[in-house]
Input
Amino acid sequence: MKKIFTLVAAAVCAASMNAQTESYVSAPEGQLATEFASVVDENGVATNVGTTGRSVVNIATEHMTVEAVGSATPTEVVPGAVVDAEKHWYEAAEIVMGDITWKNANNKLDINDAEGTKLYFVAGQGNAYADIYAEEVYTDGEPTGVYRPAYTYIDYEGGETGLPKYGLYYKFTPSVSGSLKVQVWVNKGNRKTVIVKGSTGAPMKYGVDYQAEGYVNGQRANYDTPVIDPETGEPKVDNQGNIIYEQYQIFFTAEEMLERHNNACLDENGVDTKPFVIDAGNQAFWGWLTFDVEAGESYYVFQLSSQLGFGGYEFNFADGISELSTVATTAPAVRYNLAGQRVDSQYKGVVVENGKKYIVK
Output
């Protein structure tokens, strides 16, 4: 059976309400959902690109609206005024963009599911650039008169806030408060996966404000069943004579994914050096991001130097009210020892809590 972890919303309803769930699938059975299929041609190229230079796909379930916004990659840039003479950067007086595409890609088999469920994704286009400049190409220290795009990104780790001007993102706006679970494909676990709250422009931090669960490419384990050679009917063996067993892709719970992250990203003082990186490895991740959402607030989900694959979402909320009457609560602190293992409140010694190291006596 597939193991599912869902973050509990940090709110208490004033009245007893039934928990409800609504969901959306962006690529059922490997085909683009109607919202995406209706805005592309036979090659997956967006036909709804307007004067903004973006392709906007609108999605809605009863209590959630979503904007999927794709942006093309620059193919040519015309220089304007000098911005940084040392870098040979100029203002981009004109930017020529390529096509924007929406396609089904990067599908993965969830073989921990007894039914062999496959995870399907929409692949959009565009990196989340803060700005684009024209950089003159120099050869052997001499200008060539040829210009290429140069990019900047918002420095979230350095405390900057806001939203990029370009790139692919998914904007979620709920009408009620609840817990949102977004199915994603991440090209490499060490790419920055960012969730930004629209009203403040502030990013959520992984392991503090949002969780991840799912699969990491290459992380597999053996079944008890050996691989049978069809010619001999005997178990296959490797070069050392060891039996080769059937394998399955390991599913990592939210706690296990965070442990992998902490082992790679916490420094000797217990400070998280990569608060927007899910796994820190150079392998693809596919699974789910879960975080609490507030009624009427917008949440932007994207990656800085790559594109986030989108498989859909599951929204859990309390039924029967359009505006939640809540009492704010503080989620219990999660502690880890220096080995990255989760510990309870009775643990004594050095612990890491919210990225900081403490000694509990």
User: Anything to note?
Assistant: The longest helix spans residues 254-265. Residues 1-16, 321-332 have pLDDT under 50 and may be disordered.
